[in-house]
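Notes from the 1:1 (GR / supervisor)

We went over the backlog. Supervisor wanted to see one worked example end to end before approving the batch request, so GR pasted a single chain during the call. The sequence is below; no edits were made to it. Supervisor asked that the structure be written out right there so they could see what the output format looks like.
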Amino acid sequence: MKQYRKRILDEILKEELSIMGAVVIEGAKWCGKTTTAEQAAASVMYMDEEGKTDENILLARTAPERILSGKMPRLIDEWQFAPSLWDAIRFRADRLPDPGGYILTGSSVPPKSEEMRHSGAGRFAWIRMRPMSLWESGDSSGTVSLSALFAGDVPMGAPPATKTLDEIAFLACRGGWPYVSELKTNVALNVAFSYLNAVVKSDISRYDGVSRDETRARRLMRSYARLQGTQATAAVIKADLAANEPRSFGEATVCSYINALKGIFAIEDMPAWCPNLRSKTPIRTSDTRYFTDPSIATAALGLAPEDLMNDLRTFGLVFETMAARDLRVYADALRGNVSHYRDANGLECDAVVHLRNGRHGLVEVKLGGKELIDKGADTLNALAKKINASKLAHPTFKMVLTAVGGFAYRRDDGVIVCPISSLRP
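Structure output shown during the call:
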């Protein structure tokens, strides 16, 4: 049996189980939710067990105690197959003598149902799980700690990163899927294409029972991949489809497909950051478009590592998605979150990592090279000068996160340059 590779979410799950009656782990299929939850569970019910799904759904409606009874923490895997369990677990969790009664895992958010009358607030904790970051898959040396950066530590010629640009291209196309995290051959690239096929053939329709066309779903995901890293509206996506695909989409149809992709965690857009600034320049509040994992984008576009190396512009967009994934995973470990910044004057910052204590760090994402690093540093310094220090603390750090680089270091202007394969929580 393959040895379990420790995930950052393990400690988050342990902490939440110590204070809440039930914990919900949500995320894309195949990202490792069940395996991670099994490590903490004392008993398990697999709702989608082969040959028993219909029986389990019926039991959940007529005799939920048959599903919920067992040693605790009790794992209910793919609970969304039976939304009626929600209120039953809420009722039981509210009456447990100790926290940590139930773990629920789900590969989609069940649409609102009459069977779910209560929100679960105060009884449930929600955790978002994503495909593996480079640190979790063993592809980052971890010589630069995001936590240490927030503590004020600065890398001074940290040991060199080990990944070449070709290797980063491979890791982007392979993705963070646990099943292939240790494979170094092109066989590992098949998982992303299998994931894409599962999404367009069944998952995008099974999400809410609305039949969606496989070909149209595939084209929509390809358009989304072309526009990743931008704040493209549904109207812009519709126009892109009209320009590049033979069949047109209505704007309502575009929104329907996107909402379904969000519901199954295939895409995860990044919200806008709205700080207090000295200037009165309006801040744009549109989300930035990203897939949950960069490999979904490359699969949607039909790209291999060699294709990325031959098209550095597209590679740069895919790398942004990789960086967004890793920064989100690392920020979760610090109980923080990640957003982006863009104002009406065109000033943009790819990522802002902010913690509950008010500290925040500014991050620009670049493939590498002096020209791009200089451009990223100029952006970070320009944004830092705009922040109103009387209402919001100055950034704890400013960092250009690169695909490659000899080592992590701090520039004379205070900007840290760090290869992604050196970063960890």
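Supervisor's comment: Residues 312-333 form the longest helix (22 residues).
Batch request approved.
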